[in-house]
Design goal:
single chain, 692 residues, Rossmann fold, six-stranded mixed sheet, 47% helix, 11% strand, binds adenosine-5'-triphosphate
Length: 692
């Protein structure tokens, strides 16, 4: 049997290639037993050359349709019926969407759109989209296709408003220039990777999304009913108590869609919704999206190389090749289009595969130019289903009144207080289940306290072991600073992708996220620090005075907060690899400036400034003030005949600390916490902005 390429270049043997393009007209198909059908082959009988989507079609999408070398004619399932999610055995009920009111369709058009990215300092820039145009009418399921690197995700980013930097050209919504805040209020973006909270169940994720998107104005019953309907529609109802991390790839994808459906967006952008899914899950996801379009939603998704079966689910396709449009129009008309430009699709070839092969330049780069000119880089509307009925911009403007001006500048659906309280609830659930950030942290604090206690048993009251106790105080300081810093260095890199998605989809503001994240961590920080302090303070026999204990605890806690804030700042600035390298590296100079190895008096004058920015210096000074300050009396001397530091004052003199700087240390550590937190918030905001 000739290969697709051979058929293309040398003709299809006994096949009339006129219809070609995935629609092979066999002169005598019944007498061609040698034909092999693969999953992407869509030959159509001569009785149905006009529509290979709905007519009687010879499909070989699985082995059963090719029997003993003979092709069986199988009618394709009509597209209209709604999907049945067999996997979950949920009978589909047309009413399941009753709580999601139909939407007024939105027509998106873009003209001469180009997108340029900066390649970095002194490296210039690169244009990814080259003046492409296109039209995505409302209520349609639209595929943006193309080879890898063609610019599919970039086009999706530009249209959704996710990318605004370097975008040139015009994007129209219902004929009017896109008002980005208003457009973002009616649209959502579902990313390729599943950015979901792994430690929450399906139901919890849905409730959090509902509370953030619908707020308190919508009643509990209404929210419940919406969640129920969506979960039933998406076949997730039976899994509502499953932790998200335990869901299958397809279920995660459906949950991502479900969470965005809660506020009933009009336009949905999905980046490769079928990637990583088996063919049955792909079909289910696409059929679900198709269902959503029937209620007025416009669903635009990027897709790599759909099989013939998946391809036919789409209404319209937009094909890109190296940032240029090579086809725009209905899926059914792709074959006739290719025929018209003299690039007929070989028989038994999936047109979707064929156009990608053409777009890759497999048949010569001149073919790409031919296609680009034929589609006028996306301006040509000839190949739409019913081009005559497409409304021009002016007609659309007349049909759709000017939208009401929204005085509310905030993009989020609910207020700051509601966002904070819902995020706190989510944070609480997460920290209850998080083995590292919560459980391991408490266990590590207890284990280290026991270890230190055993090593420095009674060092706190013994005059002959003052230097041991000094070492212990510094070790405690390092423990508080390093353990929290290393944990929080990971906070933003781990959460960043979820944060970007949820923030872009207007779930919450950065301010609310940051406030909730700060508050949620407080109980665990305080509890683990308190347990540690009690164990080590008692075991090492530090002075049994409440004032000194609380001073000691206060300095410990503030050191924890500073360590956390530095960790957050580094995590906001750098990725995981650089962050985990930089955090300990930056701690070393802080240690040197703490006055521990080299006393503050002996620091070279040109390095004195370092001691003022070292949180470990203030921590150590604070500990010394708590343990040896407040005019502490003579120490016991039971373990050695001579106690050099029997008088605490002598020790303070030698380490050049006065022991009365406690409040200055508290102020310095508090100020550092506030400054580092503020810097990490600013860096985080800038980073999120820079992504766009
Ligand atoms: N910020 C950037 N800096 C430099 N090049 C970029 C940047 N963003 C995208 N590109 C380049 O632009 C081209 C298009 O990228 P895009 O992610 O849109 O492709 P795609 O068609 O979605 O590919 P895939 O299907 O593999 O995801 C690629 O060559 C990519 O390397």
């Amino acid at each position: 049997m000739p290969t697709a390429r051979e058929q293309f270049f040398y003709g299809g043997g006994d096949t009339v290639s006129a219809i070609g393009l995935g629609i092979g007209i066999s002169e005598d198909s019944a007498t061609s037993p040698s034909r092999v059908y693969n999953s992407t082959t869509v030959p159509v009988s001569t009785t149905n050359t006009s529509s290979w989507r709905n007519g009687t079609t010879t499909v070989a999408t699985n082995g059963t349709q090719t029997k003993h070398g003979q092709t069986q004619t199988t009618p394709l399932a009509p597209l209209a019926p709604l999907p049945e999610l067999e996997e979950e055995k949920v009978p589909y009920d047309g009413d399941t969407m009753s709580n999601l009111p139909p939407r007024e369709p939105v027509d998106i058009e873009f003209k001469e759109l180009s997108l340029t990215v900066s390649l970095g300092f002194k490296r210039g820039s690169k244009e990814i989209l080259h003046n492409v145009s296109g039209k995505f009418p409302g209520s349609q399921l639209i595929a943006i296709m193309g080879p890898s690197g063609a610019g599919k995700s970039t086009l999706l980013d530009a249209l959704s408003g996710f990318k605004t930097t370097g975008v040139d050209g015009s994007i129209l919504c219902n004929g009017r220039r896109r008002d980005l805040p208003a457009f973002r209020r009616m649209s959502c973006y579902i990313t390729q990777d599943d950015r979901l909270q792994p430690l929450l169940t399906v139901s919890e994720n849905m409730h959090i999304a509902a509370d953030l998107k619908l707020g308190e104005k919508v009643s509990y019953e209404e929210k419940e009913s919406r969640i129920e309907n969506i979960l039933v529609l998406l076949g997730l109802y039976n899994h509502d108590q499953t932790l998200t991390m335990r869901l299958s790839g397809g279920q995660k994808k459906r949950l991502s869609i479900a969470m965005e459906l809660i506020n009933n967006p009009t336009v949905m952008f999905l980046d490769e919704p079928t990637t990583g899914l088996d063919s049955s899950s792909c079909t289910k996801v696409l059929e679900l999206l198709k269902t959503l379009t029937s209620q007025g939603r416009t669903v635009i998704c990027t897709i790599h190389q759909p099989t013939a079966k998946l391809f036919q689910i789409f209404d319209q396709v937009y094909v890109l090749s190296a940032g240029n449009c090579v086809y725009q129009g209905s899926t059914q008309k792709l074959v006739p289009f290719l025929q018209t430009v003299d690039l007929p699709c070989p028989m038994y070839h999936n047109p979707a595969d064929y156009i990608i092969e053409l777009a890759c330049g497999e048949y010569g780069f001149d073919k790409i130019d031919t296609l680009k000119s034929a589609t006028e880089n996306g301006s040509c509307l000839t190949w739409f289903d019913n081009p005559g009925s497409l409304l021009r911009a002016e007609q659309l403007m007349r049909k759709h009144p000017i939208p009401k001006h929204n005085k509310n500048r905030s993009l989020e659906n609910t207020g700051y207080a509601n966002q904070c309280s819902v995020l706190l609830r989510r944070g609480y659930i997460k920290s209850r289940r998080d083995t590292t950030m919560t459980h391991l942290r408490i266990v590590v604090n207890i284990a280290v306290a026991i270890l230190f206690g055993a090593m420095y048993d009674r060092a706190g009251r013994e005059g002959s072991r003052v230097l041991d106790n000094y070492n212990l105080l510094f070790a405690i300081l390092m423990h508080h600073s390093m353990t929290t810093m290393m944990l929080t260095v990971l906070t933003f890199p781990i959460e960043m992708s979820i944060l970007i998605k949820e923030h872009f989809n207007r779930w919450y503001s950065m301010k609310a996220y940051y406030t909730a994240m700060t508050i949620v961590d407080l109980p665990v920080s305080i509890i683990s620090c308190f347990i540690f302090t009690v164990i080590i303070y008692c075991w090492s026999y530090q002075p049994m005075e409440w004032v000194r204990f609380w001073m000691f605890f206060a300095i410990s806690l503030l050191t924890v907060f500073v360590g956390q804030s530095i960790g957050l700042m580094i995590g906001a600035w750098f990725d995981v690899v650089n962050g985990t390298f930089l955090a300990p590296v930056l701690t070393i100079p802080m240690m040197m400036f703490a006055g521990f190895g080299v006393t503050l008096r002996d620091l070279p004058s040109y390095l004195k400034w370092g001691s003022h920015i070292s949180h470990l210096r203030y921590g150590l000074e604070g500990f010394i003030g708590a343990i040896y300050g407040l005019d502490r009396g003579i120490l016991e001397c039971n373990e050695a005949p001579y106690c050099h530091y029997r008088y605490p004052k002598k020790f303070l003199e030698e380490i050049t600390m006065s022991g009365d700087q406690f409040w200055n240390d508290v102020i310095a550590l508090s100020a550092m916490t506030i400054i580092f937190r503020a810097v990490s918030y600013i860096v985080l905001k800038a980073k999120i902005k820079s992504v766009r």
